[in-house]
Design brief:
Number of helices: 6
Order of helices and strands: HHHHHH
Oligomer: single chain
Shape: globular
Number of strands: 0
Distance between the termini: 47 Å
Helix content: over 70%
Low-confidence stretches: none
Mean pLDDT: 87
Structural class: mainly alpha
Radius of gyration: 16 Å
């Protein structure tokens, strides 16, 4: 089992993986950790994620799933490129970008930054890995990963709203 996990982890640094397989692997590392962090922090804070009140589910889905994923990937690419000027280690660059991204998200909701730090670390690894193919491949893979990451909490929000509606 340990060998399989290590092999999957090493796949996160391999841009020769088929894109669909890479996305599946990175989501395996992302979603369980992010969900556990979210549930743990929700127990302490009563809610770690923004509520997006006043917006329809369609608006939230389009903004979180498409627009935000692309825009945040563009911002992340700038953060990563600037960080690479000062650090050489891929892991150090990814960790630094994740801390910066988490800090920016904490401005909207303090605990939110803690919940998404891991996801931004993985998004940074994704970008840095796929950049070996091209900048466009890096942006595309990272934006798709980000959109898939956002899809799950958006679907949970939809389920919660449907359950609460009369």
């Amino acid at each position: 089992m340990k060998t399989r996990v290590v092999a999957l982890w090493q796949s996160l640094f391999d841009a020769t993986e088929p894109p669909w397989r890479y996305l599946g692997i990175v989501l395996l590392f992302d979603l369980p950790v992010t969900a556990a962090l979210s549930l743990a922090l929700q127990g302490f804070t009563g809610g770690a994620n923004p509520a997006f009140t006043g917006h329809s589910l369609l608006e939230v889905l389009l903004v979180a799933g498409v627009a935000t994923a692309f825009l945040e990937t563009m911002v992340l690419s700038v953060i990563l490129e600037l960080t690479k000027l000062f650090l050489r280690s891929t892991l150090a660059v990814a960790a630094t970008a994740a801390v910066i991204s988490a800090g920016l998200h904490s401005l909207a909701a303090p605990a939110w930054g803690l919940v998404i730090a891991w996801a931004f670390f993985l998004q940074s690894l994704c970008y840095l890995t796929w950049q070996s193919r091209s900048w466009l491949a890096a942006v595309a893979m990272t934006a798709v990963f980000h959109a898939l990451h956002n899809l799950f909490p958006t679907l949970l929000l939809a389920a919660e709203r449907l359950r609460a509606s009369p």
